[in-house]
Design goal:
By secondary structure, the chain is α/β, with parallel strands linked by helices. The chain is built from eleven helices and 26 strands. It folds into three domains: 6-112 and 242-313, FAD/NAD(P)-binding domain; 115-238, 3-Layer(bba) Sandwich (FAD/NAD(P)-binding domain), CATH 3.50.50.60; 332-409, Enolase-like, domain 1 (2-Layer Sandwich). The chain has helices spanning 14-25, 51-54, 59-62, 67-72, 133-139, 156-167, 188-200, 247-251, 294-313, 376-387, 394-398, and strands at 6-10, 31-36, 76-79, 83-87, 92-95, 98-101, 104-107, 111-113, 127-129, 148-152, 171-176, 204-207, 211-215, 222-225, 230-232, 235-238, 242-244, 260-261, 273-275, 280-284, 287-289, 325-330, 333-339, 346-353, 356-363, 366-373. A five-stranded parallel β-sheet has the order 3-2-1-7-19, covered by helices on one side. The chain has a five-stranded parallel β-sheet with strand order 9-16-10-11-12, covered by helices on one side. Strands 22-23-26-25-24 form a five-stranded antiparallel β-sheet.
């Protein structure tokens, strides 16, 4: 490596902050620039729809590292400065009127929330999405006890927003178009668990209910469903999914396939341009996937840093071995998820009582995933087994009186 080497990282979120820190830890002492479209120092996103929206965490708590950290490591921050173009042939990016040279470029641009179109009233004031700090700061003044909150979308973001609103004393209605909440991401057993949890806190769940459009003139006042039911609302939170932020990469001519397509080393179709986090797709068990999680953003960004340094040294690159894990906090329940449930055909339930429960996903005899509610021991055992490529005896799993540690000895 040379001090004249230049690395630019585009995207100042968890992935970007991890990547630049890891580069310095690995001894890269060349020019290192982190560019972000938001004006804030890199911060955590998961607490936005949980502790931050509840008022249990402030901006300092969200922020990953203070300014002094980046100054000490000689990491140049260009915040509030969206990148407008990549010239892959000349190895340059445009940041407004400024042009930056790079030897290696890392794209960790994340994802964007799906917004309902203007024709459906998605543009009306009072209709919100949950993604960045500005979104949550716009929602927070809306959350006043006694007001009517309408949540559109029964995935984890929508359910977390519903939990916050319910805990703060609002009248909450959640609309989900699919037959059940969490249908895309979890088994019906997990859906049933969280349906009961939310209903016990007074949330009205309307599953299998499709939105026709929002109503209101100067501001949203409600929503009309396809079946003609009109719902009143003082404000709306839409949690109907996210899309990978690929516009910059696509305009530069990089291959896009369910995100920015990367190989096993996290390189894009241009060997000196890398991608990680929500925006990047990669092969996992023969399928091209994206993992929308903090764990993936951190782990994949570390591999990018290690492989950039290896490339500069002329050393062999290291493949990224994904270890999927996720979590969600709703009321007093912590859901921890390990693995991917794709292709499962059997669920084994472990019920320890008092809401402590786990659902184990099997593909035939193979353990592929686990949902654990307030059961960190089950989560840790299941996660280790999945990552080691081992299964778990269903009879032992289902017997809540049996210590799960015996599974680790088999």
């Amino acid at each position: 490596m040379r001090q004249t080497d230049k690395i630019v990282v585009v995207g100042a979120g968890q992935a970007g902050a991890t990547l630049v820190q890891r580069l310095r830890e690995l001894g890269f002492d060349g020019s290192l620039t982190l560019v972000g479209s938001e004006p804030h120092l890199p911060y955590q996103r998961p607490p936005l729809s949980k502790a931050y929206l509840l008022g249990d965490m402030d901006l300092d708590g969200l922020t990953l590292r203070p300014q002094a950290f980046y100054d000490d490591l000689k990491i140049e921050l260009k915040l509030g400065r969206p990148v407008t173009a990549i010239d892959k042939r000349e190895h340059k990016i445009s940041v407004g009127d400024e042009v930056l040279d790079y030897d290696h470029l890392a794209l960790v641009t994340g994802s964007d929330p799906i917004r309902l179109p203007e024709a459906l009233g998605g543009h009306l004031p009072g209709v919100h999405v949950v993604r960045g700090l500005a979104d949550i700061d716009a929602i927070e003044p809306e959350i006043v006890a006694g007001r009517k909150a309408l949540i559109v979308g029964g995935g984890y973001i929508g359910l977390e927003a519903a939990a916050v609103c319910a805990k703060r004393g609002l009248d909450v209605t959640l609309v989900e178009a699919a037959p059940r909440i969490l249908q895309r991401v979890a088994a019906k057993e997990t859906s049933n668990y969280f349906r009961a949890l939310h209903e016990s806190h007074g949330v009205k769940l309307l599953e299998g209910s499709k939105l026709s459009h929002f109503v209101g003139d100067d501001r949203v006042t409600g929503a009309l469903l396809d079946d003609g039911v009109m719902l009143e609302a003082d404000f709306v939170i839409c949690g109907i999914g996210i899309r990978p932020s690929v516009g910059l990469a696509e305009a530069a001519g990089l291959v896009i396939e369910n995100g920015i397509s990367t190989n096993s080393f996290a390189q894009t179709s241009e060997p000196n341009i890398w991608a990680a986090g929500d925006c990047a797709s990669f092969l996992f068990n023969g399928n091209r996937i994206r993992l929308e999680s903090v764990g993936n953003a951190i782990d994949q960004s570390k591999i990018v840093a290690e492989n950039i340094v290896a490339s500069l040294k002329g050393e062999a690159l290291k493949p990224y071995m994904a270890k999927p894990w996720f979590w969600s906090d709703q009321y007093d329940v912590k859901l921890q998820i390990a693995g991917l449930h794709t292709g499962y055909n059997r669920i084994v339930t472990r019920d320890s009582g008092a809401g402590v429960m786990s659902f184990w996903y099997y593909r035939n005899d193979e353990l592929v995933a686990l949902d654990a509610m307030n059961d960190p021991r089950a989560y840790m055992v299941g996660k280790r087994l999945i990552e080691a490529g081992k299964t778990a005896d269903p009879a032992i799993v289902a017997d809540a009186d049996t210590d799960l540690k015996v599974l680790m000895k088999r």
